[in-house]
Structures are given as structure tokens and as C-alpha cells.
Amino acid sequence: DLGCAGGGLVKQLVERGSLAIGLEGSPHAITGARSNWGDIPDNLFTCDITKPFKLMNDSGNIQQFEVVTSWEVFEHIHEYDLKYVMDNINLHTQTIDNPWLILSISNDSSWSEGVDLHITKRDRVWWLDFFSQHNWHEAKEQALFIEPNEWMCGGPHTLHFLLEKIH
After folding, report:
1. Which residues of 6-44 are buried (b: 16+ CB within 10 A; e: fewer)?
2. Please, what's the b/e burial string for 125-163 (b: 16 or more CB within 10 A of its CB; e: otherwise)?
3. Which of 20, 136, 36, 160 is CA-nearest to residue 86?
4. Cβ neighbours for 130, distance < 8 A, ≥ 6 positions apart
5. Short-list 52, 8, 4, 42, CA closest to 25
6. In the prediction, which pLDDT does 30 show?
């Protein structure tokens, strides 16, 4: 889970027996009231997802993931850095036959101390083109996988994507 905040989703997945890793760029999530960092310290890490990183498994290989999630994170990243996020996602899904990328992206403003923290606001067509440039396209089986009322995050201006990798 990219931008995992307090790690709630990761904790739920770990409790269900899944291998789940959460990456968070902000140290504030670690100490928050809803933080799960103390409960699953081997599954949550701080990381700048716009810089190259490698999550290694016990065999010393790059850990591969069937599903990558990110809930309202991409809008916080400058357009010129989004490519690097996708490079990291592609690195960690490269040997999986049919990986999924599930995310929400807000187009609302989010002001803090006079600064809009949502710096990349684009429409659905722009995002789909961007994802396509990085070998991901909208999944055809969307309705079978996630219903609109099942999304974890989102307001009226939030875009939701269920993407599959183009091989």
C-alpha cells in the first residue's frame, strides 16, 4: 500500500494471512492515534516513493506483488515525479502474470498553511493515458472486482481506478 498512513489496510491484510507491505512518506502517520506501526513493524516502512527503492524478500530477490494499492496519494506528487512512482510499481510487479493496481486520486484541493497539497489534478482521460504510458490499463473486469460503494476513500471529486498490467 503506497502512502499507507497509519497502516490500517496493511494490518487487516496481515491479520488475514497475506503478505502486505505499507510505505509512507510522512513521519506523522507513524505516531498518529490510529497508527498500527507498533503492531506490525516488519510490514510498514517510511519511503519516498518518487525515488528508486527495492523491497527484498528473504531469498534476496525483489519482492513481487499481485496487488498494489494507493489511496489518495498520486495527487500529492508532482507530475514530473509520477514516472518514478510507476517505475517502482513496475519493478515490484514485473514477474507477476496479472497484477492489479487499485487507487483513488482526489481532484479536490487540500489546503494547509496556505498551500494546496494536491498539486497534480487531472481528469480521468489524462490519468488513463498516463497509466497506459507505463503499461497499465483499465481492467475490463472492474464490476466483478470492486463495486463503486466499496472504495475505501473518496469524495465527489475522487477518481477511482482498477488497472491491470499490459504485458
Report:
1. bbebbbebbeeeeebbbbbbeeebbeeeebbbeebeebb
2. eebbebbeebbbeebeeeeeebeeeeeeebeeebbbbbb
3. 136
4. 82, 122
5. 4
6. 72
pTM of the model: 0.90
Q: What is the mean pLDDT of residues 134-143?
A: 83
The DSSP secondary structure of 94-127, one letter per residue, reads: TT-SS-EEEEEEE-S--EETTEES------HHHH
Distance CA 165, CA 135 (A): 6
Reference 154, options 102, 119, 116; nearest CA is 102
Q: Convert the pLDDT of each residue in 75-104 to its tens digit.
A: 999 999 999 999 999 999 999 999 999 999
Q: Which of 49, 62, 71 lies closest to 91 in space, CA to CA?
A: 62
- Amino acid in the structure at residue 122: R
- CB atoms inside a 10 Å sphere around CB 102: 19
C-alpha–C-alpha distance, residues 45 and 4, integer Å: 9
Q: What is the mean pLDDT of residues 98-125?
A: 94
Rg, Å, the chain Cα set: 16
